[in-house]
Amino acid sequence: MTTVTPSAPAEAGAALDSYFAAAAGGDSRAVSAALEGGIYINAQDRKRQTGVLLAAKGGHLELVGEFIASGADIDLQDQTCLNPFLFGCIAGELPLVQATVTAGTDLERLTRFGGNGLTPAAEKGHVDVVRYLLSETDINVNLTNTIGWTALIEAVILGDGGETYQEIVRLLLAHGAEPGLTDEWGTTPHQLALEKGFTDIASIIAAA
Predict the structure, then answer these.
(1) How far apart are CA 189 and CA 156, in angstroms?
(2) Per residue of the chain (208 residues), what is the pLDDT tens digit?
(3) Where does 74-126 show beta strands of DSSP type E?
(4) Is 205 exposed, middle or buried (0-12, 13-18, 19+ CB in 10 A)?
(5) Which CATH number among 3.40.630.30, 3.40.50.300, 1.25.40.20, 1.10.150.20 corresponds to the domain 110-208?
(6) Angle between helix 163-174 and helix 127-136 axes, rounded to 10 deg
């Protein structure tokens, strides 16, 4: 059975299922009709996904904006800790990231690995998202996730050492990333870069 948040009014399961399907499919009219019919805007499905998260995951940015304008809670996270902002950072969807930041998303919400939005963006090589977060927000550039890695470390050891990751490393360092923060084994980003054979990145870090 579809579930909702404890504070949500009881709704018929079929109506909720239709609402979630409309959100995932980008059907603005159906979403509006469901809300006008009494569906709770922050209702969550069995995976604790909200309508706005489903719209975000479906790539329906305009509908995400409509949800935001209607008062949807964009910070609610699903069972895997995703919300629209964190999904945007992971997927490299800059317009979605910008929309949620503009709407006041909580930058301190964490992924299931304990990183903030910057962490997966750096790991996955989403340079435009990294640049935006560092230049336009006060996101913590030195946050250490649950496995002991900073965004800088992630960019070094999970990247390919190429130009994209070199640019991400430069951006992180230019915006206050600490090159002396080590991994859980006490290894610095510079040492990690050398171990990976990423001499260009090692040189960038050494210069910092």
Answers:
(1) 7
(2) 333 444 444 446 889 999 999 999 999 999 999 999 999 999 999 999 999 999 999 999 999 999 999 999 999 999 999 999 999 999 999 999 999 999 999 999 999 999 999 999 999 999 999 999 999 999 999 999 999 999 999 999 999 999 999 999 999 999 999 999 999 999 999 999 999 999 999 999 999 9
(3) none
(4) buried
(5) 1.25.40.20
(6) 10
Are the C-beta atoms of 91 and 123 separated by less than 8 Å? no
Amino acid identity, position 112: R
Beta strand spans in the chain (E): none
For residue 121, which of 112, 133, 135 has the smallest C-alpha distance? 133
